[in-house]
Design brief:
There is one protein chain. By secondary structure, the protein is of the alpha+beta class. The protein folds into five domains: 126 residues, Immunoglobulins (Immunoglobulin-like); 201 residues, Galactose-binding domain-like (Jelly Rolls); 113 residues, Galactose-binding domain-like (Jelly Rolls, Sandwich), CATH 2.60.120.260; 343 residues, Alpha/alpha barrel (Glycosyltransferase), CATH 1.50.10; 103 residues, Maltose phosphorylase, domain 3, CATH 2.60.420. Strands 21, 22, 26, 27, 28, 29, 32, 33, 34 and 35 form a ten-stranded mixed β-sheet that branches. Strands 11, 13, 16, 18, 19, 24 and 25 form a seven-stranded mixed β-sheet that branches. Strands 4, 5, 6, 8, 9 and 10 form a six-stranded antiparallel β-sheet that branches. Helix 5 packs antiparallel against helix 6, helix 6 runs antiparallel to helix 7 and helix 10 runs antiparallel to helix 11. It comes from Pedobacter roseus. Its EC number is 3.2.1.40.
Length: 912
């Protein structure tokens, strides 16, 4: 069969989760062309492709990949770098490059074709990726910067440091074939060539522990460079490098130094010659520019009267600027950044503006968001506009700032005077819904402002909508909270003087996030941060990168390393994530066992079930949630769970000896746990909800006791809690799946849709547009009371997708899919989709008293088991083709079970 092919490229090359993805369309399909990766340092990137076909049951039988050193060679079907030949395999993800060595700056062109049971595709269109600077010697000799404060800076009390500006002119006299710029700007940078900003990234690069590794970015700047004279300009902001509040608690806060930069622009001319423009002491620099201070906690101060017009263009008089100084390089290894940089991902218009006393105004964005505010203002030279940010208002209409702690969250803009001026910050973001405006000599309009939402350039890959408006709003709140927390690291909150990558906050939350966001590269990078933070003895901190020196030794926070690795393996099939992190996970478990395990009970915990809800909303009024209740039950149960994950990981990488050892250790822990904590009345410890949920969901409860323990759980939820949850951070990660998997999806739905305290719906009813840090976030002590904190999502999103929508991976990466939506009274429709590594999966159903309609999409090269609600198979019909074409497996619990291949399906069940 001659099948026409159209291919679009989704390139994802990263270390360790490195791959290049393409979409193949069998039969004509129009696909969006996406960007190709530049400057990777993975010597063996991995390739993947999506097969898109109008046919059903499409399974790949073979593939061939060509990688060439030029577009011309690839067009001629000459894979001079690698020709895989025809490989008989159904694998279409994580195909490792196995060709000639890939050298620095090499641009490689590639394409793929496949053979399937539906026919052979044509070659795809040509796509490419490029290599970065693979060796230390490829980089310039010198870092430049100013390793000191200037008279207008205040670094002793406020970490108030101005931005550094650098510039250099150079000559280009030949015709340019290509040019790339590779830059490390620490802590943050903006790059300009001939006055134009290079790329769309902001707040780059991603933060790391700069003593361990530093990330560089690469850009194609061919179209930025002109014949003749050219000018490069850079601005360096503080970011995490010049540490915030570094003098406040020197024993706690890790410091790195003053901002600095390393840059190389490599130009290739059409005659084959090359030229390099590097950082050295021929550059000129100043700290006396318009950005007078920039701090992630406090904001940015910009004095437009200090602007130097044309500073980043040819011909600017920089005679009064300083000579750039060579500075000491950071000790961290130089690495290409394979995860996405931040960008302005959305723009919001304010919904209202109101006047306060003293010539002040309150701007309402209508949504708790993360980013910054762009302003348009007109006034006299030297007039200063102040912008103060907060998440909510007091009853009198003033900003509520108590929950910001000592973060100033303030921008200051000094006008240069004249025409309307447009400004937005460069190196500071904040979490806010409301802005207090002051300094205006006229009444500003909502049209003078725009909210710029900023997060990592991670695609939204999941949709979710139901017939229940509250559920839809909770999902929307989750989306806004998760997106805003992506800052090169998963920050806990975006507004107060913290914004730290706490390991405990993510846990199972990262798993749920993956149904909504393409976060594989993001979390692969974070796992590297965690590995880099591990001590020689095996200890892993509670915050990674370890900007704060918190090594409290507990199971639940550092254990996020195993949970995130499991997510990457289960959701994306990334065995490399398992292999790369396995030694660190094993070392940490051995450390905790040697140091804290006694008679197979793990005796060390730090946080317990963090932030459990007070019994009533009033009992928690004004009280701090910052209290720790360590629990050996929790630490021991988690250690057991991690032995089971290590068994799974050991099998994935072929370490059978470790598998046996962890099986033995796990059984010993389980026996000791049940002997110590199980009560003959049918519950664990004091019968707290979390104390029962985690051993049951982890598989620690003896089979003969499962029903009794689950009855204790349901009694707590239904009777004691009157249909509400009572979990903190630990228990909420397993609550919804536990209720669902043991037969009470109806009770899970009741918990998920409660509008009274405590619950996600209570947050919505009280005006939340993101997820609160605390269940009683409207009454608790504000010192620890973020209104945008995703940790309390727990496994809610997992339950939304796997159970309400019925989209679940039965084997790694959704190669085999289970489609089994729960039928819940009061929920009449669910419409969800998830763009997996194999392609788009959809589940959309509506139900009435006598009919069930279910549209299903399964991607090519996968299969699914679908569980259709029906009393018998004769009630089931399929509107696109015939249900007879499907493979009936069995009837199970009033469901007709079919095995199906790829394609679109429209099932209808008529129940009489």
């Amino acid at each position: 069969m001659n099948i026409k092919t159209y291919i679009s490229i989704i390139c994802i090359c990263l270390l360790p989760f490195s791959k290049v993805v393409a979409q193949i369309a069998l039969q004509h399909t129009t696909c969006e062309m996406l960007e190709n990766p530049l400057g990777i340092d993975v010597q063996k990137p991995r390739f993947a492709w999506h097969i898109i076909s109008n046919e059903r049951n499409v399974i790949q039988t073979a593939y061939q990949i060509l990688v060439a050193s030029s577009a011309e060679k690839l067009k001629a079907n000459e894979g001079d770098l690698w020709d895989s030949g025809k490989v008989n395999s159904s694998e279409s993800i994580h195909i490792t490059y196995n060709g000639k060595p890939l050298n620095s700056r090499l641009k490689a062109f590639w394409k793929v074709k496949t053979w399937t049971n539906a026919g052979q595709s044509e070659w795809s269109a040509n796509n490419y990726f490029s290599m970065g600077l693979l060796y230390y010697k490829d980089w310039p000799k010198g870092w430049i910067g100013f390793d000191r404060a200037f008279p207008w800076d205040n670094i002793k009390t406020d970490s108030r440091l101005s931005a550094r500006y650098f510039r250099k002119e150079f000559q280009s006299t030949k015709q340019i074939k290509s040019a790339t710029a590779s830059i490390i700007g620490l802590g943050l940078y903006e790059l300009f060539i001939n006055g134009k900003k290079v790329g769309e990234d902001v707040l780059s690069p991603s933060p790391t522990d700069y003593t361990k590794n530093v990330k560089y970015n690469t850009y194609d700047v061919t179209n930025y460079i002109q014949n003749g004279k050219n000018a490069i300009g850079t601005i360096l902001g503080n970011g995490r490098f010049f540490a915030m509040r570094q003098n406040e608690k020197p024993y706690k806060i890790k410091t790195f130094g003053f901002p600095k930069m390393l840059l190389n622009i490599n130009i290739v001319y059409t005659d084959g010659t090359t030229a390099n423009i590097d950082t050295d002491d021929s550059w000129k620099g100043t700290a006396d520019g318009p950005i007078r201070a920039n701090n992630e906690y406090d904001g940015e101060e910009y004095d437009a009267t200090k602007e130097a017009q044309g500073w980043n263009k040819v011909g600017f008089d920089d005679s009064k600027w300083l000579k750039a100084e060579f500075v000491q390089e950071p000790t961290g290894t130089i690495e290409a950044q394979m995860n996405e940089n931040m960008r302005v991902m959305n723009t919001l218009k304010p919904v209202s503006i109101s006047k306060l006393a003293g010539g002040r105004y309150i701007l309402d964005m209508g949504q708790n968001m993360v980013g910054w505010l762009q302003i348009k203002v007109k006034g006299t030279k030297g007039k200063q506009i102040k912008l103060r940010f907060a998440e909510s208002l007091q009853e009198n209409g003033e900003l509520f700032t108590a929950n910001l702690r000592n973060a100033k969250c303030t921008d200051l803009y000094t006008l240069k005077g004249g025409e309307t001026e447009t400004w937005e910050p460069t190196f500071a973001y904040r979490g806010f819904r409301y802005v207090e405006l002051s300094g205006y000599s006229y009444e500003p309009s909502v049209n003078d402002f725009a909210g710029k939402m900023i997060y990592d350039n991670i695609k939204t890959v999941g949709t979710f909508e139901t017939s229940d408006a509250l559920t839809n709003q909770i999902f929307k709140n989750a989306w806004w909270g998760i997106a805003g927390s992506y800052k090169g690291i998963p920050v806990d909150c975006p507004q107060r003087n913290e914004r730290m990558p706490w390991l405990g906050d993510r846990g199972a939350v990262a798993y749920g996030e993956n149904f909504v966001f393409d976060n594989g590269r993001f979390y692969a990078k974070w796992l590297q941060d965690i590995r880099n933070s591990q001590k020689e003895d095996g200890a892993i901190p509670d915050v990674a990168p370890a900007f704060w020196r918190y090594y409290s030794d507990n199971m639940t926070w550092p254990g996020a390393m195993l949970l995130v690795t499991e997510m990457l393996y289960k959701q994306t099939g990334d065995v490399a994530a398992v292999r790369d992190n396995y030694p660190a996970m094993k070392k940490w478990l051995a450390y905790m066992q040697d140091r804290y395990m006694k008679d197979y009970i793990l005796t060390k915990d730090s946080y317990g079930d963090w932030c459990m809800p007070p019994v009533t909303i009033e009992s928690g009024r004004g009280k701090s949630a910052d209290k720790k209740y360590p629990s050996e039950l929790i630490s021991t149960a988690y250690y057991y769970h991690f032995t089971q994950l290590m068994i799974q990981f050991g099998k994935a990488i072929g370490n059978e000896e470790d598998v046996k050892n962890y099986e033995l250790l796990g059984n010993q822990i389980k026996d000791a746990f049940n002997q110590k904590y199980y009560n003959k009345e049918g519950y664990y410890a004091s019968n707290a909800l979390t104390d029962n949920i985690i051993p049951l969901y982890f598989g620690m409860v003896p089979q003969s006791k499962v029903e009794t323990v689950f009855k204790s759980i349901t009694n707590t939820v239904e009777v004691t809690n009157k249909g509400h949850l009572s979990n903190g951070l630990v228990g909420i990660q397993w609550l919804m799946r536990c209720l669902n998997d043991y037969g009470r999806p109806d009770l899970a739905y009741t918990v998920a849709t409660q509008k009274t305290y405590p619950g996600w719906g209570y947050m919505v009813e009280n005006g939340a547009t993101t997820i609160w840090e605390l269940w009683n976030g409207n009454t608790a002590d504000p010192k620890m009371n973020s209104q945008n904190h995703v940790m309390m999502l727990g496994d809610l999103l997992i339950w939304y997708y796997e159970n309400l929508a019925g989209i679940k991976s039965e084997s790694a990466a959704f190669k085999k899919i289970t489609m089994k939506p729960e039928m819940i009274n009061g929920l009449n429709s669910v419409n969800a989709s998830y763009n997996s590594v194999y392609g788009l999966i959809k589940s959309s159903y509506t139900k009435t008293a006598d009919q069930f309609k279910w549209n299903v999409t399964i991607p090519a090269n996968t299969t699914a088991m679908v569980y259709i609600p029906a009393n018998n198979r004769n009630e089931v019909s399929e509107k696109i083709k015939s249900v007879k074409d499907l493979k009936f497996i069995k009837m199970e619990n009033n469901r007709a079970v079919y095995e199906i291949g790829s394609g679109d399906y429209a099932f209808v069940v008529e129940q009489k």
